[in-house]
Amino acid sequence: MKKAKSFTLYFFIYSFMICSLFLSTTLSIHASISTNVKVYINGELMEFGRDANDPGPYIKEGRTLIPFRRIFEALDMEVSWDAKERMVTAIGNDIEMKLYIGKTNAYVNGEEKTLDVPAEITDGRTFVPLRFVSENCGAEVKWEDSTKSVYITLPKVITLPEDDIPGGPGNIDIPVVVEKKLGEKVTYNGMTFSFDSVELLDIPNASEKKLRIKGTTNIEGSTLWLEVYNECHNYVSLRAFAQPSESDTYDFLATLYVSNSFVPSYMYVYTEDNTGKRIKIADYEF
CA 202 to CA 271: how far, in whole Å? Predict the structure, then answer.
């Protein structure tokens, strides 16, 4: 009888310890995840929870993760899911991005990049790191800790009036491209522009740097496509947007996150004709 009582007591203590350990582990996991995150895109609050298939974002290990379809669709990109490879692919705006579930390596236009937090599947839904995705699509991201809010500002794309589009109707000509140095001007079909600086900005505790390219143009709301190459002829693609101005000169700005090993060497500049065909109009040597 005493043995039976002792066995029962030991079994109770053992069960209690196992339950406590399980509860402690579960609480610790959930303690590292914070929900009720607000996400604003161009000042407009994204709504989540409209149905069972619309989960909201959350914070894990200091990084905001968001349902992959919602963020990529907001960035005007088409998405696909490869169940075999456990891979998300997003394509649009001259960008192709690949992220893998549980892996810290991703690819942007073929260039390998490192994530602080990988994409993951939670409650049957795929989540991706919001800042990485947004910034590598050319958007600006700001975090407000007091309200747990993320503010995403998308690059403004403005279509020029048809008569002003370089290479527009009746104006499709292929220019003779002459190699330029930074600061030298190029004129093509009424557009005069120059690219004046190419910078690599350090990011504390990150495996990437911010590539920032500045220039000027005479046409409001204009956009140019840039291909920036390193000495190994690997390249990244990004767009330069003319910033609002009260004068007749508009600042061009293009930004993109690149790996620490990427060192810009030269750059090709493109515009589009009325059919969407790209035309190379400048070649800058750094």
Answer: 30
